[in-house]
Structure formats: structure tokens, C-alpha cells
Amino acid sequence: MRPLIGIPCHEDFRQHSGRPIYCNNRTYTHALESVGGIAVLIPIFNDLTSLESLLRRVDGLLFSGGGDVEPGRYNEEPHPLLGELDLRLDEFELTLARWALKENMPILGVCRGMQLLNVALGGSLYQDVEKQRPGSMQHCKRDRLPFCNGSPMPSRRNLYQRTGMRPSLLRLC
Fold first, then answer.
1. Model pTM greater than 0.90?
2. How far apart are the first and last CA of the chain?
3. Smaller CB count within 10 Å for the chain: N or C?
4. What's the distance, CA 44 to chain centroid?
């Protein structure tokens, strides 16, 4: 039987209608499918106490990328260059992460997801790595990757020619 992997969704608005939606990057669902898993998208619950019945039915969780984790979650004041926050998503995902850790459930964190797991385990974060750790590598070099600015994503072959990244590594970009 194929494993069911829960992926928490974030809240957004449909582009043309403005209607509220729950969503996530479909790259994660395709990546799971390509390795034999089945993605189960988990919307943000209003009543977090009802999550356990869903969590007992999945085999693991994947915490995806996204905005910054609110600094109060790791006892810090916001840095002036702090990015976008989503307090409701933080509460939801931290509840999921702490439950999964307590139950020894398999977890994968990607980008924000790794940061979230660190915070769930009592860790702290650099809110602006470039300013707080001079000389460190930027997360996304927007000047080198022109498609990061919202322009259409080039083909994998074209992307390889422009960035030098192997196509197999581009599946999760």
C-alpha cells in the first residue's frame, strides 16, 4: 500500500475571483507521487483539537517552504528585515509538528519546514541570514535567477543552461 503523506496548506486567494483557497506548491505532490507516495493536502483547521483523527490516518508529514516563522515563537523580537508572516499557519503547522514529533511520525521539512521543525523543537532562527551572518549564501539569488521574480518558469533544459543546475535537482525548485 502506498504511504499517505500529509502536506499542510496555506491560505491564499484565487487570482481572478479573489475567493479564499487553501493551497500548496504542486511540486511537492508530484515529487511524492514520483516516489510512490500519495499527497494528502491538509487545510488549516479552525478547531485544532480535531486534527488528531486526520493525523492518525497519514503515514508522514511534509512541511513545505513559505514565509518566515513569527519570531515570538522562539522568544525574539522581529528584525527590521523580517519577511512575510502568517500567524495562523504558524500555529497550525507547529501544532502538527509537535504532534508528529511526539508520535514519532516521519517528517520532512523543506525550507520554511526545516525552520518550523527547529522552532517546534525549541530552537531559534536567524531572521535575516544575510544581515545577521555576513558572508553567508543568499537563499534565492533573484538577480541570478530571473524566474524568481514572477516571470514564467523556463523549460528544464533552458533552466540548466541558465543556472548550471542539473535537471534532477530542479524538480523541487
1. no
2. 28
3. N
4. 14
What are the grid coordinates assigned to 104, written together? 514519532
Per residue in 80-100, pLDDT (tens digit) is: 888 889 999 999 999 999 999
**C-alpha span between 4 and 55 (Å, rounded):** 10
Instruction: List the one residue out of 142, 124, 145 whose CA is nearest residue 133.
Output: 124
Cell numbers for 6: 500529509
**What is the per-residue DSSP string for 24-62?**
--HHHHHHHHHTT-EEEEEPPPSSGGGHHHHHTT-SEEE
Confidence check: pLDDT of 157 > 90: no
CB contact at 8 A, 103 and 120: no
Local confidence band at 167 (pLDDT 50, 70, 90 cut-offs): very low
Q: In this predicted structure, which of 12-16, 66-70, 128-132, 158-162 has the lowest mean pLDDT? A: 158-162
The alpha helices in 19-154, defined as continuous H runs, are: 26-34, 51-55, 87-102, 112-120, 129-132
**Does the pLDDT value for residue 34 go beyond 80?**
yes
Cell of residue 144, nine digits: 541570478
Would you give the DSSP letter of residue 121?
T
C-alpha cell at 10: 496555506
Residue with cell 508530484: 30
What does DSSP say about strands 60-63 and 4-8: parallel, antiparallel, or unpaired? parallel
